[in-house]
Specification:
CATH architecture of one domain: 3-Layer(aba) Sandwich
Organism: Symbiochloris irregularis
CATH superfamily of one domain: P-loop containing nucleotide triphosphate hydrolases
CATH class of one domain: Alpha Beta
Enzyme class: transferase
Catalytic activity: AMP + ATP = 2 ADP
Order of helices and strands: HHEHEHHHEHEHEEEEEHEHH
Shape: globular
Largest sheet: 5 strands, parallel
Radius of gyration: 24 Å
Helix content: 40-55%
Strand order of the largest sheet: 2-3-1-4-10
EC number: 2.7.4.3
Distance between the termini: 30 Å
GO molecular function: AMP kinase activity; ATP binding
Structural class: alpha/beta
Bound molecules: zinc ion
Strand content: 5-15%
């Protein structure tokens, strides 16, 4: 409606002053914005990254900023089980038997979640923890448009230190981190500063380390992740969709930097880049 009003207003000015270059360019501008809105799509992004990198935190904050649903693989399963849908019941049976969910089932869960969201006016998505395997990544690009795969990483030694520094309060179940990371910049690498996430005095006596946050398990977890994630990263790279982002500081410093890095990929820029490309090929 607003577009039509702007178009007729611009056209009216064009009629009134046929020689006016200004009015003509205004019409062109409006037509361009109409074309943009016809082709515009909200972001369909995936977030990749190893356990402990803070992927859940960053992806949910970015999703909130962009106004798209944050869909975490774990929630996908839990929500559908909670809703007792037929797919949810199938998933629940598998989870009970300790079986892995098939890709077909995962995509059915995702489809259900997206359909439900769309009925409530949602559009686009930000996937967190999915796709996990190459096969899932390939299927996802057939299942939906994917505009960007954001690959969050933290230098390995830092990630290990962060995982080992995790503490949970056995009283209120809140998570803290005692790791105090302060590595100066080298010729080839940026400085890393991640202050601890300190527990308040009332939680201090109840801090516990999870039994699987020991060096052997953490290293093994990262190896397992890397084996599975490398082909996924390579796939998105070949598709020209991978954006590598290194985390070198805490959340308050990193979030604005991540937001700035993602700005050029926001759908508006994405569409104008496509329009520019089309113009070049015309
Ligand atoms: Zn506590």
């Amino acid at each position: 409606m607003a577009v039509l009003q702007r178009l007729s207003h611009a056209a009216g000015r064009l009629n009134a002053a046929p020689a006016s270059v200004n009015a003509a360019s205004q019409v062109a501008e409006v037509l361009q914005s109409v074309r943009r809105s016809e082709h515009s799509e909200p972001p369909c992004w995936v977030f990749l990254g190893p356990p402990g990198v803070g992927k859940g935190t960053y992806s949910s904050r970015i999703a909130e900023i962009m106004g798209v649903p944050h869909i975490a693989a774990g929630d996908l399963v839990r929500n559908e089980i909670g809703l007792q849908t037929s797919v949810g019941l199938q998933a629940a049976a598998k989870v009970r038997n300790g079986e892995l969910l098939s890709d077909t089932l995962m995509f059915q869960l995702l489809q259900n979640r997206l359909d439900r969201g769309r009925r409530q006016g949602e559009s686009g998505f930000l996937l967190d923890g999915f796709p996990r395997t190459l096969a899932q990544a390939q299927t996802l690009t057939l299942f939906s448009d994917v505009h960007l795969a954001v690959n969050l990483h933290v230098r390995k030694e830092v990630l290990i230190e962060k995982c080992l520094g995790r503490r949970v309060c056995s009283h209120c179940r809140k998570n803290y981190n005692v790791a105090n990371i302060n590595i100066p910049a080298s010729a080839s690498q940026p400085a890393i500063q991640m202050p601890p996430l300190e527990a308040p005095p009332e939680c201090q006596p109840f801090l516990e380390t999870r039994s699987d946050d020991n060096l052997v398990t953490v290293q093994r977890r990262l190896e397992v992740y890397q084996e599975e994630a490398q082909p996924v990263e390579n796939f998105f790279k070949r598709e020209g969709l991978l954006l590598d982002f290194e985390i070198t500081a805490g959340i308050p410093q990193t979030l604005p930097r991540l937001q700035a890095a993602l700005q050029p990929y926001h759908w508006d820029a994405h569409i104008s880049a496509q329009a520019g490309e089309a113009a070049m090929h015309a």
